[in-house]
Every structure is written in structure tokens, then in C-alpha cells.
Amino acid sequence: MNNTHTGQAGKKLSLKEKYALMTRGLGWDTSYEPMDKVFDQLGLEGIRIHDWDKWEDPFRLTMDAYWKYQAEKERKLYAVLDAFQQNNGHLNISDARYVNTLKLFFTGITPAEYNAHRLFAMLGRQFPGPGAAIACQMQAVDELRHVQTQIHSISQYNKYFNGLHDHSVMNDRLWYLSVPKSFFEDAISSGPFEQIIAISFALEYLLTNLVFMPFMSGAAYNGDMATVTFGFSSQSDEARHMTLGLECIKFVLEQDPGNVEIIQRYLDKWFWRGYKVLGLVSMMLDYMLPRKVMSWKEAWEIYFVQNGGSLFNDLSRYGLRMPRHWEQSVAEAEHLSHQTWNSFYNFSDAAAFHVWLPSDEDMAWLSEKYPNTFDQHYRPRIEHYRRLQAEGKRYYNPSLPMLCQTCQIPLIFTEGDDPTRTSHRETEHEGEKYHFCSDGCQEVFEQQPDKYVSAWLPAHQILQGNCFAPDADPQAAGFQAEAEVMRYFHVNPGQDNMDYEGSQDEANWRLWKGLSPDGASKAPPAA
Amino acid sequence: MNPIQSTVFMALQTNDDTRPIIEALQRDNPAAVVHRLPAMVKIDAPGRLVLRRSTVEEILGTAWDLQAINLNLISLSGNVDETEDEMVLHWNR
Amino acid sequence: MQTNSQAPSSHPLVRDRVDNFHGQQLIYVGWDHHTMICAPIALLVPPGLSFGELVDSLLAHSAFALHPDWPRINWAEVEWFASDQPVTPRRDTALKDQGFGHKTFLRMRTPALRGIAGSGS
């Protein structure tokens, strides 16, 4: 064995020495092609890097240790998944309504993990510093692991519940999933430094705590052993990803003072883009977990205001400030989940999961958590919906919504000084009108109009006739446009969506749990 | 730049592996506050939090590799500095 | 300011130009203080459609008509806004002939009506 690196056989390397040898020690400069041709995307953004050797992973994780710990995580995870399947773990959840959070997660987040895998594989190729390249390579493998473990975990639910049958097609086509999809496609089509700020810093460091911590803790609280396990197994990688994000930002800021302004612009953009995607999480926490862990407002206070505030206190020495409009996100925490949920109640006949009205107990919880807004603005319409449902006249919105050109969310948000008036911003670019839900989204557009004018907005695509299956014939007599759009989405109307009450999911759950139609428990059938 | 007290935190899965880690954190960081949530434990501390291998080993009564924290760590906040002997989370180094 | 990211293409794809709507155009309509209808609606209309027809035939079959305030609207009192500026639409005039081109956002306000139980919803 060759021990020339250490000079003496058998000496155990320190973590720092091992890291230096197994990252920087593996790099080389190209000779037959100039370095700037090999790493040809580095100069496009105006970021200046003078010394890649200054990059250091604080975890000092090397590939050998990486494989060892990842293998151990997988062994633990799959042991739990086996136990979950063998013990019919899906019957131990708090209520079948809970599974609808998984449907949203699986169609919205799991495909995003796959895009993150692609992004980091490309990013690892673009960075000439071996420390950065190896960290990106590890993250590319991590993200692929997340996709696979999520698909595997949720396969048990797919055997018993509707709406989980086609996550990848749904992610490509289903209207509300264009929100997370366009977020990742925006990131992956950026320059390498913007990509890493977008995903590793803004998404992982500032925002994913909101997805994984309250939501996975909520999964545990609702008896979902499989999701807790894959969630925390994924999240154990996220701690490393967050550290990568913070390290990257400090590295770039320390390399050149001219980088600060560019990084601040990226942070402003990606904070706002990420915050908008998190509206889905607010609805999960406040309206979809049968047993609730914390409100969106509380979660935003802990994980963004306190944690993000600490982070930006630390970064202020580089001249960075909190991202633009962060105060607005705090004020909107009073409204976000209520407005988001209402949009899914409006359009639940075009979604791939069930909705339901909050119970009296749920509404008492919402009043307590949102004393400034719920009773005044949101309770009256839920009570109106109740009356309509009792009369058999359930309200579904038969129209298509106006969408924000940037975040692609319908214009469901309201003005800061009037929560009953839709927030709308408009601009004209090269003779075309563009509409936005917020100042933040308008500013993102105006930085790069050429990128966002090509946004694939689902409502417009439907109206252009682009959301039909190849064998559909819109000219045929009796053509059912709405049914054909659902077929294009791979959604089975009535089975995958609309109200939970009266659904096949509900009927099955009652049967399995031995519940009578009025909800009272009865003795399970004799074996 | 804003009036927020800078807190670092470490969130760990609730299991037998993390019990001695949480105990070591409490022992070495008297200002730390432990929050027990469903399936996870979040440990907050003002400004700085240190995890010492020697303290975990003392509680366990056996050798422990600090990098094994990667198996059960859910999330963290703060700048990370890790050696064989300790992992420090801190703001404003 | 233009991008610092990857080199922009010289001819960006404008995906929602009016030519892509097969002879029709988009109009958006919102109703202030009626947030039960979760967002303004997007309608596909022939540019020659009159404003009166927009209200009588399209809005009357949209989500708006499902709001309990819809039958109570006093149309003589309705205030209209285009691009958030006050306008006075002419019922018998085509949309295109009164400046309501492709992707115009029309907002209506019904001063006497404030949504479900006056909540603005």
C-alpha cells in the first residue's frame, strides 16, 4: 500500500488531513483545453472567484464516510418500511383524510427532488473547485435517494388510496403542480451560482425546515410511520445541504466584494419564489393534518423570523440584508393558509386529492391560532359552504383562474391593507400585458422578462387547446373539454378528487376500521 | 440589523441513538433549551452550541464517532465547525 | 436590468401572444370584496364581443353567478376598473373598440355588496 501522502504507514489521518487529501488532492488543472473553456458557465453571471481552495466543507465529509453513513441510513429506513408494510401501517394513521397531505407531497415535492438531483449533477460538473464539486456530487446522489425512498414509502399507500398513481405525469401537467415545477425549472435554467443560491441557500437553508420539520413531526403525530422515516432520513441529508448552502454563500462573498450585490439580488428573488411555493405547506399544516402540530403562523415565526433573522444577523457583516418583502411574508402569515385552502376548495374537482370542510373543533383551533383574522374574514365563508353542502349545493368554481406570470399561483392573495381585495400588479413588456400577484413577483419578472414571458401557465395552455391527450379530437361532436383536460392530467374525476365525504377513500377507510356510516366505531368483523 | 436574538439549533430524531447526544448537549450547554416534539427533539441555544465527543463517550461508556451524528441529525442552524472531538454551531465567529 | 445568468436567447418565446388563441383573446375579470371566488377569472372571448354580452352571457355563467350577491347586483351602480384605473364601459361597444385588448384585467366593485355576511368573502 502506498502511504506516500502521510509519510508514515499506519498513522490515522485527522479529519482535516483526510478531507484535504480526498477533495483538493483529487483535483487537477486541464492541460489540453484551457480551464475557462472546460468550465464555460462560470463567467456568465459576473461572480468573481479568485481561489477555489478557500472552499471548505465544515462537515469535512469524504466519499468513504459518505457511503458508509448513507448505507446505514438506507438500512434503517428499509427496515422500517418492511415493518410498515407487514403490519398494515396505513391502518394506524389518525384518519384517511391525512393521506391527502401525502398526495400533495408526492405529486409536488417528490418530482422536485428528482429535478434537484439533475441540478446538482450538472452543478458538480460546472465548479472547478474539487471541494465544491464533491459536495455537489454527494447532494446529487442524496436527491436521487430521496426520490427513490419517497416512491418506495408511498407505494404502500398507493395500494390502498386514490390519487397516488401517476406522480410524474401529474407533475408535468396538473395546474397547481406547475408552481413547484416552474420553481425548479427556473432554478435549473440559471447560471451555476444562481442555482446553488436558489436551492442550497434560499430553499434548503431558509425554507425546507418548514417542509420537513413541522410536516414530518405532523406525520408522526398522525401515526404515519413510513413518512416520518423517509422524511427524517431525507432531512438528515438536508442538514449537510444547508451547511453547503451557507458555506457557499460565505465563500462567494469573501472572494470578491463585487459579488455581494449579485448575491443579494439572487437572495431577494429566491426567497420570494420559495415563499410562494410554501403556500402549499401552510395549507397542509392548518387545514389538512387531522391532528395538528403547529400553525403556519407559528412555524413561520420559528423557522423564518427567528432562524432566518439569526442567519441574516450573521451575514450582515458581508453587507447582506434580509431579503426584500420579508416583512410582507410575516404580515401575510395571518392569511396565507386560509386563502390557499379556499382556492383548492374552489377547484377541488380539478385536483388530485380530496378536500373537506373544517369541523367545529378545527374551526375553534383556527380561531385560537388566528385571532386577528379567522373569525372576521374566513369563518363566514366556511359556514356558507357548510350551508350549501347541507342543501346538496356544493360550490365548485366552474371558471379558470387568472394566474401570476412569475409564481403561477392564481391571484388568490389580497392587499396588505385590505384582506378582501385581490392583490394585482401589472406591467407591459414589448407590447404584451403581464399580471402578478405581488410586488415581489413583478420584480422577479422585471429582472429577467425574456425568461418569464415564456412561462407555461396552465390556465392559458388549457385555453390554447394544448391540454388534451393526443387522441382527443376537439372538433368531434359532443367533445367534453373539461373531461378531456382531466384525462390529460391523468386524474379520475370523483375518484381522486372532490370532497372526502362520500369518496371511495372514505368508504374503504370505514370498512377497514369497522366504522359505521355515522362515524361511530363498531366491532370489527369476526375473522 | 434586526432585534432578533441569534439562536442556533440542532434537531435530532427521537431514538435511542440520540438520547446520549441530547444529554451531552444539555450537560455541556447550560443555556440550551430542549423542545420535545412528535418524533423529534429540537435543542436551541443562544449564539453557540457545542457537542463534545468525550461527553457522549462518557455517557455511553464506549467509543463514539462524532460523524455518526449524520445518521440522526434532522436539521441545524448556525455556522458549523467540526473536528474529531467536537462539533460547534455558532453565529458571529 | 437583464440577466446575469445563462446567455439570453435572442428571440424569447412569448407563449401567450394573442395569435396562439385561435382568433380569440383573453379577458380577466375580478370582483372586489367577494373572495369566495378565490381569484379573478380568465375568459376566452371573440374580440368583437360587446361588453354587454360579456356580462350577460359569460359572467352570468361563470363562478360569479354562484355567489349569493350576484342576483342582488344593481348594475347601474357597479364601478369598473381596467388595469386598476376607473373606466366607464359602453355596453353596446365591442371590447376591442373600447381598449379592452388581449389580457386586459377588468375589476368590478359593487359598493352596496360586501360578500358573505359582509365579510368581504
UniProtKB/TrEMBL annotation, chain A:
Pfam families: Phenol_Hydrox, YHS. The keyword Transport does not apply. InterPro entries: Ferritin-like_SF (IPR009078), Phenol_Hydrox (IPR003430), RNR-like (IPR012348), YHS_dom (IPR007029). One of its GO terms (molecular function) is monooxygenase activity. Residues 420-456 form the YHS domain. The keyword Oxidoreductase applies. Signal peptide: none annotated. The lineage of its organism: Bacteria, Pseudomonadati, Pseudomonadota, Betaproteobacteria, Rhodocyclales. Keywords: Monooxygenase, Oxidoreductase. This is YHS domain-containing protein.
From TrEMBL, chain B:
The keyword RNA-binding does not apply. GO terms for molecular function: monooxygenase activity. InterPro entries: MOase_MmoB_DmpM, mOase_MmoB_DmpM_sf. Keywords: Monooxygenase, Oxidoreductase. The keyword Ribonucleoprotein does not apply. It holds the Pfam family MmoB_DmpM. Belongs to the TmoD/XamoD family. This is Monooxygenase. It comes from Zoogloea dura.
UniProtKB/TrEMBL annotation, chain C:
Pfam families: Phenol_monoox. InterPro entries: Phenol_hydroxylase (IPR006756), Phenol_hydroxylase_sf (IPR043010). Gene3D superfamilies: Phenol hydroxylase. One of its GO terms (molecular function) is phenol 2-monooxygenase activity. This is Phenol hydroxylase. It comes from Zoogloea dura.
